[in-house]
Amino acid sequence: MKAILSTDLLGSALSRCYDACEKKALESIVKLSFKDSKLLLSAKGAFSYYEEEMSTISVDNDSEFCIKTVTLLEFVKYISSESLIMVYDEEKKSCLVSSSDKKSKLALQIAEVTVELGQMPNYQVEFDVDNAHEFIAKLNYASKFCSNNFQDYPLTAICCEADIDNFTIQSTNGPYYYSSEIKINNQQNAMQIFLPKKSASILKNVFHEQLFDKCSISHRAVLFESNNCKLIFFVLESNNTFPDQVSDWIKKDSQASIKVSVYELSKTLKFFNGVFQDASVNFNIKDNKLTLESKQNNVASKESVVVEECTGDAKSAYNAKYFLDCLESLQSSWVNLDFIEMSTDFYLCKLTHGETLILLCPTTF
Protein backbone atom coordinates (compact mmCIF):
# COMPACT_ATOMS: atom_id res chain seq x y z
CA MET A 1 0.00 0.00 0.00
CA LYS A 2 1.18 3.51 -0.83
CA ALA A 3 -0.57 6.63 0.46
CA ILE A 4 0.14 10.36 0.25
CA LEU A 5 -1.13 12.36 3.24
CA SER A 6 -1.28 15.97 4.37
CA THR A 7 1.40 16.49 7.01
CA ASP A 8 -0.65 19.03 8.98
CA LEU A 9 -3.85 16.95 8.98
CA LEU A 10 -2.02 13.81 10.05
CA GLY A 11 -0.08 15.65 12.76
CA SER A 12 -3.24 17.17 14.24
CA ALA A 13 -5.07 13.82 14.20
CA LEU A 14 -2.13 11.98 15.81
CA SER A 15 -1.92 14.65 18.54
CA ARG A 16 -5.58 14.12 19.41
CA CYS A 17 -5.10 10.35 19.48
CA TYR A 18 -2.15 10.87 21.82
CA ASP A 19 -4.11 13.22 24.10
CA ALA A 20 -7.12 10.88 24.21
CA CYS A 21 -4.87 8.12 25.59
CA GLU A 22 -3.51 10.34 28.39
CA LYS A 23 -0.18 10.93 26.59
CA LYS A 24 1.36 7.65 27.70
CA ALA A 25 4.25 7.50 25.23
CA LEU A 26 5.30 3.92 25.92
CA GLU A 27 1.77 2.54 25.67
CA SER A 28 0.07 4.74 23.07
CA ILE A 29 -0.68 2.81 19.89
CA VAL A 30 -2.67 4.14 16.92
CA LYS A 31 -4.42 2.00 14.33
CA LEU A 32 -4.37 3.33 10.77
CA SER A 33 -7.21 2.02 8.59
CA PHE A 34 -7.11 3.03 4.91
CA LYS A 35 -10.42 2.44 3.13
CA ASP A 36 -12.26 4.14 0.26
CA SER A 37 -9.65 6.94 -0.02
CA LYS A 38 -10.07 7.80 3.67
CA LEU A 39 -7.86 7.24 6.70
CA LEU A 40 -9.45 6.29 10.03
CA LEU A 41 -7.18 6.69 13.06
CA SER A 42 -8.15 4.79 16.26
CA ALA A 43 -6.57 4.80 19.72
CA LYS A 44 -7.57 3.29 23.06
CA GLY A 45 -6.51 4.39 26.55
CA ALA A 46 -7.15 3.07 30.04
CA PHE A 47 -10.72 4.41 30.10
CA SER A 48 -11.12 6.11 26.72
CA TYR A 49 -11.40 5.34 23.01
CA TYR A 50 -10.88 7.84 20.19
CA GLU A 51 -11.28 7.69 16.44
CA GLU A 52 -10.99 10.31 13.73
CA GLU A 53 -11.45 10.18 9.97
CA MET A 54 -9.35 12.28 7.61
CA SER A 55 -9.03 12.60 3.85
CA THR A 56 -6.00 11.29 1.98
CA ILE A 57 -4.35 12.93 -1.02
CA SER A 58 -4.11 9.51 -2.64
CA VAL A 59 -4.02 5.83 -1.67
CA ASP A 60 -3.73 2.80 -3.95
CA ASN A 61 -5.05 -0.03 -1.70
CA ASP A 62 -7.12 -0.57 1.42
CA SER A 63 -4.99 -1.57 4.39
CA GLU A 64 -4.93 -1.64 8.20
CA PHE A 65 -2.06 -1.72 10.71
CA CYS A 66 -0.98 -0.41 14.14
CA ILE A 67 2.09 1.66 14.99
CA LYS A 68 3.47 3.56 17.98
CA THR A 69 1.77 6.96 18.17
CA VAL A 70 4.60 9.05 19.58
CA THR A 71 7.21 7.82 17.07
CA LEU A 72 5.12 8.74 14.03
CA LEU A 73 3.96 11.98 15.65
CA GLU A 74 7.51 13.16 16.35
CA PHE A 75 8.51 12.47 12.74
CA VAL A 76 5.48 14.31 11.37
CA LYS A 77 6.29 17.33 13.55
CA TYR A 78 9.94 17.22 12.46
CA ILE A 79 9.53 17.29 8.67
CA SER A 80 8.80 20.56 6.90
CA SER A 81 7.10 19.31 3.70
CA GLU A 82 3.37 19.86 3.19
CA SER A 83 2.79 16.19 2.41
CA LEU A 84 4.33 12.83 3.28
CA ILE A 85 4.43 9.38 1.72
CA MET A 86 3.52 6.25 3.65
CA VAL A 87 4.34 2.80 2.25
CA TYR A 88 3.13 -0.31 4.09
CA ASP A 89 4.63 -3.75 3.38
CA GLU A 90 2.25 -6.42 4.67
CA GLU A 91 4.74 -9.26 4.23
CA LYS A 92 7.56 -7.55 6.13
CA LYS A 93 5.14 -6.05 8.64
CA SER A 94 6.84 -2.68 8.26
CA CYS A 95 5.94 0.87 7.26
CA LEU A 96 8.21 3.41 5.57
CA VAL A 97 7.29 7.07 6.04
CA SER A 98 9.09 9.83 4.13
CA SER A 99 8.74 13.50 3.37
CA SER A 100 7.54 14.33 -0.14
CA ASP A 101 11.05 15.43 -1.14
CA LYS A 102 12.47 12.09 0.16
CA LYS A 103 15.03 13.94 2.32
CA SER A 104 13.64 12.53 5.59
CA LYS A 105 12.68 8.89 6.08
CA LEU A 106 11.45 6.78 8.97
CA ALA A 107 11.12 2.99 9.02
CA LEU A 108 8.63 1.57 11.53
CA GLN A 109 7.94 -1.97 12.63
CA ILE A 110 4.23 -2.73 12.88
CA ALA A 111 2.91 -3.18 16.43
CA GLU A 112 1.40 -6.61 16.96
CA VAL A 113 -1.49 -5.35 19.08
CA THR A 114 -5.21 -4.90 18.67
CA VAL A 115 -6.95 -1.54 18.99
CA GLU A 116 -10.66 -2.33 19.13
CA LEU A 117 -13.59 -0.67 20.83
CA GLY A 118 -15.53 -3.88 21.33
CA GLN A 119 -19.29 -4.19 21.38
CA MET A 120 -21.07 -1.26 22.96
CA PRO A 121 -24.70 -1.18 24.14
CA ASN A 122 -27.31 1.13 22.66
CA TYR A 123 -27.22 4.66 24.02
CA GLN A 124 -30.23 5.45 26.19
CA VAL A 125 -29.68 9.23 26.32
CA GLU A 126 -28.80 11.46 23.36
CA PHE A 127 -28.77 15.26 23.04
CA ASP A 128 -27.16 18.02 20.97
CA VAL A 129 -24.52 20.21 22.60
CA ASP A 130 -25.08 23.85 21.64
CA ASN A 131 -22.06 25.25 23.50
CA ALA A 132 -19.17 22.79 23.75
CA HIS A 133 -16.89 25.46 25.28
CA GLU A 134 -19.28 25.83 28.24
CA PHE A 135 -19.65 22.05 28.56
CA ILE A 136 -15.89 21.48 28.65
CA ALA A 137 -15.27 24.40 31.04
CA LYS A 138 -17.81 23.20 33.59
CA LEU A 139 -16.62 19.60 33.43
CA ASN A 140 -13.04 20.83 33.82
CA TYR A 141 -13.92 22.94 36.87
CA ALA A 142 -15.79 20.00 38.39
CA SER A 143 -12.64 17.89 38.12
CA LYS A 144 -10.82 20.38 40.36
CA PHE A 145 -13.33 19.70 43.14
CA CYS A 146 -12.92 15.91 42.93
CA SER A 147 -11.08 13.94 45.58
CA ASN A 148 -7.59 12.86 44.55
CA ASN A 149 -7.72 9.48 46.26
CA PHE A 150 -10.03 7.27 48.26
CA GLN A 151 -8.12 7.92 51.49
CA ASP A 152 -9.04 11.62 51.39
CA TYR A 153 -12.65 11.09 50.28
CA PRO A 154 -14.35 8.07 48.67
CA LEU A 155 -15.80 9.91 45.65
CA THR A 156 -13.02 10.44 43.08
CA ALA A 157 -15.23 10.79 39.97
CA ILE A 158 -17.43 13.45 38.38
CA CYS A 159 -21.12 12.74 38.82
CA CYS A 160 -23.15 13.54 35.67
CA GLU A 161 -26.92 13.30 35.39
CA ALA A 162 -29.10 13.95 32.34
CA ASP A 163 -32.83 14.50 32.46
CA ILE A 164 -35.23 16.04 29.94
CA ASP A 165 -34.07 19.65 30.38
CA ASN A 166 -30.71 19.65 32.16
CA PHE A 167 -27.31 18.02 32.19
CA THR A 168 -26.08 18.33 35.79
CA ILE A 169 -22.40 18.09 36.73
CA GLN A 170 -21.43 17.53 40.38
CA SER A 171 -18.24 16.82 42.30
CA THR A 172 -17.05 16.93 45.89
CA ASN A 173 -13.96 16.13 47.93
CA GLY A 174 -15.62 16.54 51.33
CA PRO A 175 -14.83 20.17 52.28
CA TYR A 176 -15.82 21.47 48.82
CA TYR A 177 -18.82 20.84 46.58
CA TYR A 178 -19.41 21.95 42.97
CA SER A 179 -22.62 21.77 40.95
CA SER A 180 -23.59 23.28 37.61
CA GLU A 181 -26.30 22.70 35.02
CA ILE A 182 -26.35 22.93 31.23
CA LYS A 183 -29.65 23.23 29.35
CA ILE A 184 -30.30 20.32 26.97
CA ASN A 185 -33.15 18.80 25.02
CA ASN A 186 -33.23 15.10 25.84
CA GLN A 187 -36.26 13.14 24.65
CA GLN A 188 -35.18 9.86 26.22
CA ASN A 189 -34.63 8.42 29.71
CA ALA A 190 -32.93 10.19 32.59
CA MET A 191 -29.61 8.68 33.66
CA GLN A 192 -26.80 9.19 36.18
CA ILE A 193 -23.22 8.13 35.46
CA PHE A 194 -19.75 8.74 36.92
CA LEU A 195 -16.93 9.95 34.67
CA PRO A 196 -13.24 9.60 35.58
CA LYS A 197 -11.68 12.82 36.84
CA LYS A 198 -9.14 12.87 33.98
CA SER A 199 -11.89 12.83 31.35
CA ALA A 200 -12.29 16.60 31.75
CA SER A 201 -8.68 17.39 30.78
CA ILE A 202 -8.80 14.89 27.90
CA LEU A 203 -11.92 16.56 26.50
CA LYS A 204 -10.25 19.95 26.83
CA ASN A 205 -7.09 18.80 25.02
CA VAL A 206 -8.80 16.82 22.26
CA PHE A 207 -11.55 19.28 21.33
CA HIS A 208 -9.79 22.63 21.70
CA GLU A 209 -9.82 23.11 17.90
CA GLN A 210 -12.81 21.20 16.52
CA LEU A 211 -15.66 21.00 19.00
CA PHE A 212 -18.15 18.20 19.52
CA ASP A 213 -21.85 18.86 18.95
CA LYS A 214 -23.51 15.68 20.25
CA CYS A 215 -23.41 13.62 23.45
CA SER A 216 -24.76 10.09 23.93
CA ILE A 217 -24.91 8.16 27.21
CA SER A 218 -25.34 4.52 28.15
CA HIS A 219 -24.76 2.67 31.42
CA ARG A 220 -21.29 1.72 30.17
CA ALA A 221 -20.03 4.67 28.13
CA VAL A 222 -20.37 8.36 27.21
CA LEU A 223 -19.83 9.36 23.58
CA PHE A 224 -18.82 12.85 22.38
CA GLU A 225 -18.77 13.32 18.63
CA SER A 226 -18.25 15.92 15.92
CA ASN A 227 -18.43 15.55 12.15
CA ASN A 228 -15.33 13.38 11.88
CA CYS A 229 -14.33 12.56 15.49
CA LYS A 230 -15.60 10.27 18.23
CA LEU A 231 -14.35 10.24 21.82
CA ILE A 232 -15.74 7.61 24.19
CA PHE A 233 -15.23 7.43 27.94
CA PHE A 234 -15.98 4.18 29.71
CA VAL A 235 -18.20 4.81 32.74
CA LEU A 236 -16.75 3.91 36.12
CA GLU A 237 -18.38 0.80 37.54
CA SER A 238 -17.27 1.29 41.14
CA ASN A 239 -19.63 1.84 44.04
CA ASN A 240 -19.64 5.62 43.64
CA THR A 241 -22.59 7.38 45.25
CA PHE A 242 -23.21 11.06 45.65
CA PRO A 243 -23.81 12.22 49.26
CA ASP A 244 -27.50 12.91 49.78
CA GLN A 245 -26.89 15.28 52.69
CA VAL A 246 -25.53 17.93 50.30
CA SER A 247 -29.10 18.65 49.12
CA ASP A 248 -30.17 19.18 52.74
CA TRP A 249 -27.30 21.60 53.36
CA ILE A 250 -28.19 23.68 50.30
CA LYS A 251 -31.81 24.05 51.44
CA LYS A 252 -30.91 25.39 54.90
CA ASP A 253 -31.56 29.07 55.63
CA SER A 254 -28.56 31.39 55.64
CA GLN A 255 -27.65 33.72 58.49
CA ALA A 256 -26.05 36.27 56.18
CA SER A 257 -26.13 36.98 52.45
CA ILE A 258 -24.15 39.35 50.25
CA LYS A 259 -23.82 40.14 46.55
CA VAL A 260 -20.31 41.23 45.65
CA SER A 261 -18.13 41.91 42.62
CA VAL A 262 -15.94 38.90 41.80
CA TYR A 263 -13.20 41.28 40.67
CA GLU A 264 -13.17 43.27 43.93
CA LEU A 265 -13.31 40.20 46.17
CA SER A 266 -10.67 38.36 44.13
CA LYS A 267 -8.34 41.37 44.20
CA THR A 268 -8.48 41.51 48.00
CA LEU A 269 -8.05 37.75 48.42
CA LYS A 270 -5.05 37.75 46.06
CA PHE A 271 -3.50 40.48 48.23
CA PHE A 272 -3.96 38.38 51.37
CA ASN A 273 -2.67 35.26 49.63
CA GLY A 274 0.42 37.15 48.48
CA VAL A 275 1.23 38.67 51.87
CA PHE A 276 0.35 35.62 53.98
CA GLN A 277 1.35 32.25 52.58
CA ASP A 278 -1.55 29.78 52.56
CA ALA A 279 -3.65 32.51 54.16
CA SER A 280 -6.72 31.85 56.27
CA VAL A 281 -8.93 34.90 55.88
CA ASN A 282 -11.70 35.91 58.29
CA PHE A 283 -14.94 36.99 56.61
CA ASN A 284 -16.93 39.33 58.86
CA ILE A 285 -20.42 40.32 57.66
CA LYS A 286 -21.93 42.91 59.95
CA ASP A 287 -23.72 46.26 59.72
CA ASN A 288 -24.20 45.88 55.94
CA LYS A 289 -20.43 45.55 55.38
CA LEU A 290 -17.98 42.80 54.40
CA THR A 291 -14.64 42.99 56.16
CA LEU A 292 -11.72 40.65 55.52
CA GLU A 293 -8.96 40.14 58.08
CA SER A 294 -5.84 37.99 58.28
CA LYS A 295 -2.69 37.82 60.37
CA GLN A 296 0.47 35.76 60.43
CA ASN A 297 3.46 36.12 62.75
CA ASN A 298 3.94 39.89 63.23
CA VAL A 299 1.90 40.98 60.21
CA ALA A 300 -1.83 41.71 60.17
CA SER A 301 -4.15 43.22 57.60
CA LYS A 302 -7.78 44.33 57.42
CA GLU A 303 -9.69 45.31 54.29
CA SER A 304 -13.29 46.31 53.53
CA VAL A 305 -14.89 45.09 50.31
CA VAL A 306 -17.69 47.07 48.67
CA VAL A 307 -20.84 44.97 48.34
CA GLU A 308 -23.94 45.45 46.21
CA GLU A 309 -26.31 43.86 48.74
CA CYS A 310 -25.82 42.71 52.34
CA THR A 311 -28.14 41.19 54.98
CA GLY A 312 -27.57 39.44 58.31
CA ASP A 313 -24.47 38.79 60.42
CA ALA A 314 -21.86 36.02 60.19
CA LYS A 315 -18.18 35.47 60.87
CA SER A 316 -16.02 32.63 59.56
CA ALA A 317 -12.56 31.93 58.12
CA TYR A 318 -11.74 30.43 54.70
CA ASN A 319 -8.57 29.56 52.83
CA ALA A 320 -7.81 32.40 50.41
CA LYS A 321 -6.48 30.19 47.61
CA TYR A 322 -9.43 27.80 47.73
CA PHE A 323 -11.86 30.71 47.78
CA LEU A 324 -10.16 32.16 44.68
CA ASP A 325 -10.51 28.79 42.94
CA CYS A 326 -14.22 28.84 43.70
CA LEU A 327 -14.65 32.35 42.32
CA GLU A 328 -12.81 31.42 39.12
CA SER A 329 -15.06 28.39 38.64
CA LEU A 330 -18.17 30.59 38.60
CA GLN A 331 -17.04 32.46 35.45
CA SER A 332 -19.04 35.55 36.35
CA SER A 333 -18.69 39.23 37.26
CA TRP A 334 -20.90 39.01 40.35
CA VAL A 335 -21.39 36.32 42.98
CA ASN A 336 -23.97 35.74 45.68
CA LEU A 337 -22.52 34.51 48.97
CA ASP A 338 -24.76 32.84 51.57
CA PHE A 339 -23.36 31.88 54.96
CA ILE A 340 -25.12 28.83 56.39
CA GLU A 341 -24.56 28.05 60.08
CA MET A 342 -24.15 24.29 60.50
CA SER A 343 -23.11 24.52 64.14
CA THR A 344 -21.76 27.19 66.48
CA ASP A 345 -19.24 29.34 64.58
CA PHE A 346 -19.19 26.84 61.69
CA TYR A 347 -20.51 28.49 58.53
CA LEU A 348 -20.68 26.89 55.12
CA CYS A 349 -20.24 29.47 52.37
CA LYS A 350 -22.56 28.94 49.41
CA LEU A 351 -21.38 30.68 46.23
CA THR A 352 -23.95 30.94 43.44
CA HIS A 353 -24.24 32.47 40.01
CA GLY A 354 -26.67 31.37 37.34
CA GLU A 355 -26.76 27.58 37.18
CA THR A 356 -23.56 27.07 39.17
CA LEU A 357 -23.40 26.48 42.94
CA ILE A 358 -20.36 25.86 45.15
CA LEU A 359 -20.18 24.98 48.85
CA LEU A 360 -17.00 25.79 50.78
CA CYS A 361 -16.26 24.67 54.34
CA PRO A 362 -14.39 26.99 56.72
CA THR A 363 -10.73 26.37 57.55
CA THR A 364 -11.70 24.98 60.96
CA PHE A 365 -12.92 21.88 59.10
Describe this structure as you would to a colleague.
The protein has 365 residues and is of the alpha+beta class. The protein has 3 domains: 108 residues, DNA Polymerase III, Chain A, domain 2; 119 residues, DNA Polymerase III, subunit A, domain 2 (DNA Polymerase III, Chain A, domain 2), CATH 3.10.150; 115 residues, Proliferating Cell Nuclear Antigen (Box), CATH 3.70.10. The protein has 7 helices and 26 strands. It has a 9-stranded antiparallel sheet, sandwiched between helices. Strands 6-2-3-4-17-16-15-10 form an 8-stranded antiparallel sheet. A 5-stranded antiparallel sheet has the order 5-1-7-8-9. It is elongated.
Outline of this structure?
With 365 residues, this protein is an alpha+beta fold. 21% of the residues lie in helices and 44% in strands.
Q: What characteristics describe this protein?
A:
DNA Polymerase III, Chain A, domain 2, 3 domains, Proliferating Cell Nuclear Antigen, 9-stranded antiparallel beta sheet, alpha+beta
